[in-house]
From TrEMBL:
Enzyme class: isomerase
Pathway: Carbohydrate degradation; pentose phosphate pathway; D-ribose 5-phosphate from D-ribulose 5-phosphate (non-oxidative stage): step 1/1
Enzyme Commission numbers on file: 5.3.1.6
Protein name: Ribose-5-phosphate isomerase
CDD domains in the record: RPI_A
Family: Belongs to the ribose 5-phosphate isomerase family.
GO MF annotation: an example: ribose-5-phosphate isomerase activity
Length: 242
């Protein structure tokens, strides 16, 4: 489909134009459906005699269970962030990107490990399809609210604070599928709350306000973190933002 091709184009270009095979060794691998093609591209290089040696030495750092599987399925070496706290380059998707490259992430409920990896990396590259580029503010295209990871016992308190102190318009504890009744439980054994603030004119301030609430582990607002964004367009081209 055009959408999958756009994701693949963004991911392949991001890998080809940013991986320095001599310099990079510790590689952060994000979560979601676009970063799948980042792992796929690295897997192709692994099979390329000219690149096999270097890629076989890469240590890939995951951002959750899905990410761990991506690394394994593409024959790449898995490492832990405890062993490799300094990452050379990281790739991940995003739910929305504004004109200052501020991000909403967390659509896949992996935002905590994603932010731990992206902020531990010297270089953080975002790969996204054309639906993710906001015309201006965060909250324009992405209508599901800011994902917030919270300690389960605090979800009522955080919900109240988001409504009364930060005036969120709608606050929802993210539910799982009928295959598993109850709220989504993250890879870190926490809940996700999605809080709708409408258009976000100052994402840095909002992140700080949310982060200061008791019970909040991390927010899906990634501020001053992305270094380059690759957008796959619906005409097969790629746009680069930096
Ligand atoms: O949860 C996240 O932030 C993921 O990166 C995800 O939302 C990216 O979405 P994608 O499946 O469209 O790549």
């Amino acid at each position: 489909s055009k959408l999958e091709e756009a994701k693949r184009t963004a991911a392949y270009n991001a890998v080809d134009q940013n991986i320095n095979f001599e310099e990079h060794r510790i590689i952060g691998i994000g979560s979601g459906s676009t970063v799948v093609y980042v792992a796929e591209r690295l897997g192709q290089y692994l099979k390329d005699p000219a690149r096999h040696e270097q890629v076989a030495n890469f240590i890939c750092i995951p951002t959750g269970f899905q990410s761990r599987m991506l690394i394994k399925e593409n024959g790449l070496q898995l490492g832990s962030i405890e062993m490799f706290p300094d990452i050379d380059i990281a790739f991940d998707g995003a739910d929305e990107v504004d004109e200052n490259m501020q991000l909403i992430k967390g659509g896949g409920a992996c935002l905590f490990q994603e932010k731990l990896v992206s902020t531990s990396s010297k270089k953080f590259i975002v790969v996204a399809d054309y639906r993710k580029k906001s015309p201006k503010y965060l909250g324009t295209n992405w209508k599901q609210g800011v994902p917030i990871e919270v300690v389960p016992s605090a979800y009522v308190r955080v919900t109240k604070d988001l409504e009364t102190k930060l005036h969120a318009k709608k606050v929802v504890v993210r539910e799982g599928t009928p295959a598993k009744a109850g709220p989504v439980v993250t890879d870190n054994n926490n809940f996700i709350i999605d809080a709708d603030f409408g258009e976000i004119h100052d994402p840095k301030l909002l992140h700080t306000q949310i982060k200061s609430l008791v019970g909040v582990v991390e927010t899906g607002l990634f501020i001053d973190n992305a270094e380059i964004v690759y957008f796959g367009n619906d005409d097969g081209t790629v746009s680069v933002m930096n």
